[in-house]
Amino acid sequence: MRSLRNRRGYAVAATGAALALVLTACGGGDDEDPKGGGGETNADCAAFEEYGDLDGKTITIYAGIVNPEDQPYVDSFKPFEDCTGAKVDYQADKQFEQQILVRAQAGNPPDIAIVPQPGLLAQLVATGTVKAAPEGVAANVDEFWGEDWKALGTVDGTFYAAPSGASVKSLVWYSPQEFEANGWTVPTTLDELKTLSDTIAADSGHKPWCAGIASDAATGWPVTDWMEDMVLRVGGPDVYDQWVKHEIAFNSDVPTQALDAVGAYLKNPDYVNGGYGDVSSIATTAFQDGGLPILDGQCSLHRMASFYAANFPKGTDISENGQIFAFYLPGQAAEDKPVLGAGEFVTAFSDDPAVQALLDFWSTDTWANLKAKASADLTNGGWITANKGLDTSILVNPIDALSAGILQDPNAVFRFDGSDMMPAAVGSNAFWKEATSWITGQSTKDTLDKIEAAWPSS
Q1: Residues 434 and 451: beta-carbon distance below 8 Å
Q2: Sign of CA dihedral 153, 157, 158, 159
Q3: What is the per-residue pLDDT for 69?
Q4: Where would one find the signal peptide in this protein (predicted)?
Q5: Phi/psi at 269 (nearest 5 deg)?
Q6: CB burial string 368-390: b at 16+ within 10 A, e below
Q7: Could you give the count of Cα atoms lying within 13 Å of 51 in the half-sphere of its Cβ?
Q8: 10-residue stretch averages of pLDDT, the chain, 458 residues long
Q9: DSSP character for 429?
Q10: What distance in Å separates the CA atoms of residue 373 and residue 375, rounded to the nearest whole number?
């Protein structure tokens, strides 16, 4: 929606004070008319005029983002509600991924869904119930995200879903205080990461790495993230895409090199499993607990996504000079910036004008900054997006700021979590199971051969 970007009648500035105004500007209190008396439009709502009067319209949003993360979404839509008269009904459900398909297939979908995987989006499109994204949304995505993100919301050449939130998986957690005390520096290449690991193993008195992959029925998924990061680094983004789409075999040369590269860390008895035991203990350690030994000086490094901040105890100093922070998992060269991550995509099952208007607003930098501001108080991490219009000064959490900076780096080459885009028989079944067997002793060849064999024939 170009009007929200260019008009200044509405307080769209991304700085803290202006955003605080935006959250309450359109209409003041609940009993006030946001359009003012006598039909005059409040200047703060001028940018919403093109949507017309949506009074009496209710727009349902269905998502798997539940309390406490759901409240910032509700708050971020308030200016839209106050200025247009529409009501946004946000419905959170932990069973979203199963139920959204059931609802779509039954012909009872919500107006809008927040979809966490491109693979699920494709399944929803196949039901014939999803509407193509409006032209204004497509224009916003072209400006604020770029081709790689737009492609993730595209199915069979049609653009359906604008990106929204994002997470960065290419991170290594560490203790800045321990690094300073020992004179260690953050590595900028994979070779430097290997040298650092050798140094810690030789000099620190503890294993350099710690890890945990236990996650009930999803045990093994952290290994898939490790491997995806290494496929990106060993083979590059084009080969990564071919691997995810099964245009090259799962047990072909680059994936084999990548899993062996992971093994150089996770299956190296000199490197793991600090604070827990030997290599096999990785399989029985909960992923939520995997990096906690860093706090006790029992390990120094833990590869895990940006959302892992929430697993450290309340009160932990997570900052650039604190007890815990993270650094970007480097590429082969310092200038290489492959980034593995995940995200959310907003898609609609209705072409009602009110729904289309909310989609347009949702795809702007204005909404992104409102959402970031509303999420700032979440414990150990708020919310980030790859939207280039995000004002990173809003991000009070240092990990959020770090992650946003990685996503906005002009050299960044982003790729979505591969297992989330693979067929379920592979991405959320064989890949997880065989990765666990690999940790407990199965060879790389047998592991990749079994995953390859699980790929559906059609």
Answers
A1: yes
A2: positive
A3: 87
A4: 1-25
A5: -65, -20
A6: bbbbbbbbbebebbbbbbbbebb
A7: 30
A8: 36 38 42 41 70 95 92 94 96 92 96 94 95 97 91 96 96 98 98 98 96 95 98 97 97 98 98 97 97 98 94 93 97 96 96 97 95 81 88 90 92 93 92 98 98 93
A9: I
A10: 5
Taking the C-alpha atoms of residue 25 and residue 10, their distance in angstroms, rounded to an integer, is 8
Query: Across-strand partners of 412?
Result: 337
The answer to whether the peptide bond before residue 273 is cis (omega within 30 degrees of 0) is yes
Q: Which residue is associated with the tokens 């209705």? A: 350
pLDDT of residue 381: 63
Q: CATH number of 171-340+419-454: 3.40.50.1000, 1.10.10.10, 3.40.50.150, 3.40.190.10?
A: 3.40.190.10
- Structure tokens given for 22: 């935006």
CB atoms within 10 A of CB 247: 10
Q: Tokens representing 285? A: 């350690």
Instruction: Give the H or E element holding residue 452.
Output: helix 444-454
In this prediction, residue 39 carries a pLDDT of: 37
Decide yes or no: CATH 1.20.1440.230 for domain 2-167+342-414. Answer: no
Q: What beta strand segments (E) does 372-452 contain?
A: 384-385, 412-416
- In angstroms, the CA 123 to CA 105 distance is 10
